[in-house]
Design goal:
Layout: E1 6-13, E2 16-23, E3 27-35, H1 47-58, E4 62-66, H2 72-83, E5 88-91, H3 93-102, H4 108-118, H5 140-154
Parallel strand pairs: 1-4, 4-5
Antiparallel strand pairs: 1-2, 2-3
Helix pairs in contact: 1-2, 3-5, 4-5
Length: 156
């Protein structure tokens, strides 16, 4: 791996994104979930502002985004990366699933558990197994961002 490689992996959903900041794909530095709006509204962060803060904090040399529908947040991420001359790579959800199936993971919970083993700093964010009637846990987005980064580097 390249010395000094700083990776910002993003999982983008409607109204929010999760980020995982890694050094050399092996060391987790920071992670989190940010809510933001496409349009400015009093007291709420816009997608462009939130993404600029994430880039300022991480100073990435590579951005990895899981391929999804284009929205205001993904557009803001790509604009911010282009403005800073940071390459953006995308990984498909199919590639993520394929990699983790080879690791014996059949669902998101299993993927999250394996990722927490590889990055022990994420153990405290590992959600309990969800019940059928419950929605996806808030922190699962962090594991989706980490899964995209891991699958991207496994395919290289």
């Amino acid at each position: 791996m390249i010395s000094g490689l700083r990776i910002l992996a993003l999982e983008i959903r409607a109204g929010q994104f999760a980020f995982v900041y890694l050094e050399r794909a092996s060391k987790l530095i920071d992670c989190g979930v940010r809510r933001c709006r496409a349009e400015p509204k009093r007291g709420a962060s816009t997608a462009a502002d939130a993404m600029a803060r994430a880039f300022d904090r991480c100073q990435p040399t590579l951005v990895i985004i899981r391929r999804s529908e284009e929205n205001a947040i993904s557009a803001a991420a790509r604009r911010e990366a282009r403005a800073r001359s940071v390459p953006v790579r995308s990984v498909s959800w199919a590639a993520v699933r394929k990699f983790f199936r080879a690791q014996g993971c059949r669902n998101k919970q299993a993927r999250a558990t394996v990722i927490a083993e590889w990055y022990p700093e994420l153990q405290r964010k590992l959600p309990a197994e969800r019940k059928v009637q419950h929605g996806e846990p808030y922190h699962m987005l962090i594991f989706d961002a980490a899964a995209a980064a891991v699958a991207y580097f496994a395919s290289r």
